[in-house]
Structures are given as C-alpha cells and as structure tokens.
Amino acid sequence: MYQQKKQKTMLVDKIKSYKGIILLNEMITNKRVFKTILNGDDKFLEPMLIDMVANKYCSITGDQYTVTAQGEMVFNTFMKRYQEFLKMFDVYAFVDLEAGEFAFAKYFEFNSDAEWDAYKTNQRFDDVRIAVCNYKKMDAKEIVFMAFINENRFDTSSTGWQMDLLSDAIWLEMDEIVRSAINLTDLGDESVIVDIINQGSKLVVDLMKQEVDYRKNELISQQGNEDVTTVIEEEIVTYEEDIVYYEAYYDPQFLSPIWYAPLFIW
Fold first, then answer.
1. What pLDDT shows up at residue 218?
2. Neighbours of 128 (CB within 10 A)
3. What is the spatial distance between Cα 255 and Cα 40, in angstroms, rounded to a whole number?
4. CB 170 within 8 A of CB 148
5. What's the mean pLDDT in 205-228?
6. Do the beta carbons of residue 120 and residue 106 sit within 8 Å?
7. What percent of the chain has pLDDT over 70?
8. Please, which residues have CB within 8 angstroms of residue 28's CB and are 6 or more apart in sequence?
9. CA 7, CA 77: separation in Å to the nearest integer?
10. What does R_g of the chain's alpha carbons equal in angstroms?
11. Does residue 86 lie in a domain region?
C-alpha cells in the first residue's frame, strides 16, 4: 500500500513538473505576463502559479508573477535535455526493424518538408524511442512529453489551452503511448537494441557532419559579407563541438549527465 501511494505521488509530481515547464516557457520564451489578478481562462492557472511561488520557482513582483533564478535554472536544464532529445533521440522515431534502416539516413535527399514527411511516415518505419529510453534507464514519459512539445500539442495560442493543460486527457494519452509502444521485450534479445542504438548514434553524428559541410559551403559562397562569415564560422565551431560531445553516445548505455539533474522539487 505504501509503495502504491509513493508511486502515485511521484506520478502527480511528474505531471505537475510538465505543467510547470509549459508555464515557464510561456513566461520566459513567449513573454506572457500573468497578473496576480487573473482574467479569463488564465484563472484556471492560479493554483499552479501559487504553487510555483510557494516553491520559489516564481515570485510576485508588483501585480504580476515573475520567474525566479531558480525557475530559470529549471527551465534551462529542461531545454538542454530537449535540444539533446531533438538531436539524439528523434532519429529512433522512424526505424525499419526488418531492413535495419533508419528514415533519417536519407534526410538530406529530400527537397521539401512535404517529401520528407511523406517518406518518414511510411508504415514500414517503427518508433523505438521508448525502447531506447528503457535500455538507457530514462524516464519514457519525459521523452513523450518532449515529443508532444515538438509536435506543438501544447498550443498556447489556441483558445482554452489552460483547461487542456490542467485536464487529465493529454497525460492519460502520454501513459497510453508509453504502455503501447515497442519495448525491450518486443525486440527480443538485448543485441537487437544495442545494434539499433549503435546505428542510431553513428547516424546522428554523420548527419551533424553533413550539416557542418553544408554550412561550410554556405560560408564559401558568402565570403564577401564579413558579418555573415563571422556568424557562420561561429556556428561551424559549435557544430564541431557538438560532434565531439555526441560521439560519447557511441556507448549504447551512455546518457549525458544533464538527464540526471533534478528539475522541480515539489
């Protein structure tokens, strides 16, 4: 009974943390101002905002809620994870398990997003991100949450997004995705997931190298513009540093330390 209660509390706190990330993003990235006297659908967010003040992730300045240094630190940590998710884990969303092929291997062969979308959604490709998370002992729900963000499932420009955020529907959907996804047991022998991760890690680094080559070619074509040249040179340095960073993922069990850093503590 105690163990069940503890697991339920952890799940509630986890969902609260996801909601907190969405609110921090609104305040930090989208510059949305939440007044202490909330109007319209923002009124539904009041308990959450008060909770964030109580836990020092937000404070009240004048007549509005503002993000504290502690809140910014949580958001920055999450965004580092999110960027790593986009670079390192999205590649496992479209894998042909029978042929041992990754859709992303042909990413640079398409001339438009429409062509790429049509290719990667072919039924022969399976999503094995949850299985990869299981093997690396990651929180699969957080990966689904990031995927939802990438798909703009939390559309804060739409009417009624506040109620959608606070309802159970989207969180239950996340649970169902984790439960129904391909997992380690479905893949059978451990060597299968190790091979998938090995191929995926090398593909990610290869794609980054192709991106570096693209930027270098762009640099050559714009030599006459010193400002542009400086910017692109700086970007190339960043890409090359990223390549070295992500080569650590050649070890199938490797996981960057940023994934172990705590986010919210409620």
1. 74
2. 26
3. 43
4. yes
5. 76
6. no
7. 92
8. 67, 72, 75
9. 24
10. 21
11. yes
38 part of a folded domain? yes
- Give a yes or no: residue 172 inside a domain: yes
Q: How many structural domains comprise the chain?
A: 1
Assign residue 181 a region: left if phi > 0, alpha if psi is -120 to 50, beta otherwise? beta
The answer to the question of residue 7 being in a domain is: yes
* Secondary structure of the chain in HEC code, one letter for each residue: CHHHHHHHHHHHHHHHHHHHHHHHHHHHCCCCCCECCCCHHHHHHHHHHHHHHHCCCEEEECCEEEECHHHHHHHHHHHHHHHHHHHHHHHHHCEECCCCEEHHHHHHHCCCHHHHHHHHCCCCCECCHHHHHHHCCCCHHHHHHHHHHHCCCCCCCCCCHHHHHHCCHHHHHHHHHHHHCCCHHHHCCHHHHHHHHHHHHHHHHHHHHHHHHHHHHHHHHCCCCHHHHHHHHHHHHHHHHHHHHHHHHHCCCCCCHHHCCCCCCC
d(CA 180, CA 234): 43
Cα–Cα distances (Å) from 245 to 8, 98, 152, 241, in that order, read: 36, 30, 28, 6
Determine the pLDDT at residue 25.
Answer: 98
Give 102: exposed, middle or buried? Use CB within 10 Å, 0-12, 13-18, 19+. buried
Q: 86 with 150: CB under 8 angstroms? A: yes
Instruction: Say whether pLDDT at 6 is over 50.
Output: no
- For residue 135, the enclosing domain spans 2-258
